Amino acid sequence: MTTAYYVHVTIDQGKNVMLLDSGCTQSAFPLKEFQKLLFQFGTQKISHQFIIADIDNAILLRLDFFENHHCLLDFQNAQLKIRDSAVRCCDSQGNLLKVNVQVRQDTVLPPRTERFSMARLSTKWVQGTACIEPADTVPGVLVATTVQDPDKQQVHLRLMNYTDREIRIPAGKIVAMCLAANLTRPAPTESASHGQLPEHLKTLVEESCQGFSPEEKPKVQALITEHQNAFSSSQYDFSKTNVIKHGIPLVPGAKPLKQRPYRHGTAQEAEIEKQGQSLIREGHGA
Q1: Count of domains in the chain?
Q2: Is 207 helix (H, G, I), strand (E, B) or coil?
Q3: Are residues 85 and 11 in the same domain?
Q4: Around Cβ 5, how many Cβ atoms within 10 Å?
């Protein structure tokens, strides 16, 4: 589902929201004649000519408004930038699309480590399930993207320091953004829709059910069967990640070494060839 972007405005001292729609040319107001409106974004007053149209009760800010007032819609930060100021976007009910996530207390990350930390939302969140995304405000720190239900305006953060130095994050520092999550359930596989357990997961179910009661074991199997797409089907069924870019630090001025390839025995050569061909068949080699 596509997110609609609205902004808060004040018209005749009354609070309203306006729908941003740069795909059409003329801004519209739900009546039946032309009208020039004076309204306010935050502390900035703006006058604009609207066409009064037979539409639902939504005030539309369209391409003419964007061009006349030099506007820029910042999707990453959910902001409408007007001249030298910015207005945060909201939904049709006036709830902000994104709010800041701040660490609750001073946090120390030793080199090459990760930890979980509690954080708070800067504004009340009433939209249910949320996606926590990194704000890229602390150099050297990665924040994991997660889906959570903010409890008492709090969320859990997974922080990683990928540098060789200690990093300190002061309390109140904005490290992430909270935005509404539109969740969709993937279509179940044929085996999952029939409650069937694939062969490659039977051992996993047996090991996972150890220590559970006879009443609990069927629930564990049903859970694994429902989410079977999350598990690898073989040793060659793996994916990639772009969370961290791999790099090999080089010594300044160092030159490449010239040496012969390592020698292997007959049995080792055969095994190397076998595994290489297996990777090629599975699409992981060339």
Answers
A1: 3
A2: helix
A3: yes
A4: 20
Q: Is residue 155 part of a domain?
A: yes
Q: Classify residue 83 as left (phi > 0), alpha (psi -120 to 50) or beta.
A: left
Looking at residue 25, its pLDDT comes to 66
Cα distance between residue 209 and residue 224, in whole Å? 11
**Residue at 78 is within a domain:** yes
Which whole number is the average pLDDT over 156-166?
92
Same-domain check for residues 11 and 85: yes
Whether residue 136 contacts residue 95, with contact meaning beta carbons closer than 8 Å, is answered with no
Q: Which residue has the tokens 């946090």?
A: 107
pTM beyond 0.70: the answer is no
CA 74 to the chain's CA centroid: 16
Q: Which two tokens stand for residue 152?
A: 């008492």
Find the helix or strand (DSSP H, E) in which 79 lies: strand 79-82
Instruction: Render pLDDT for 269-284 as a digit per residue (tens, 0 to 9).
Output: 899 888 888 888 877 7
Angle at 49 between CA 47 and CA 54, to 5 degrees: 130
Q: Is 65 a member of any domain?
A: yes
Residue with tokens 């009910």: 93
Domain that holds residue 37: 6-90
Distance CA 64, CA 26 (A): 6
d(CA 280, CA 201): 25
Domain assignment present for residue 161? The answer is yes
- Say if residue 194's pLDDT is above 60: no
- Domain of 126: which CATH number? 2.70.40.10
Q: Determine the Cα–Cα distance for residues 283 and 259; give it in Å rounded to an integer.
A: 30
Asked if residue 33 has pLDDT above 60, the reply is no
pLDDT given at position 189: 58
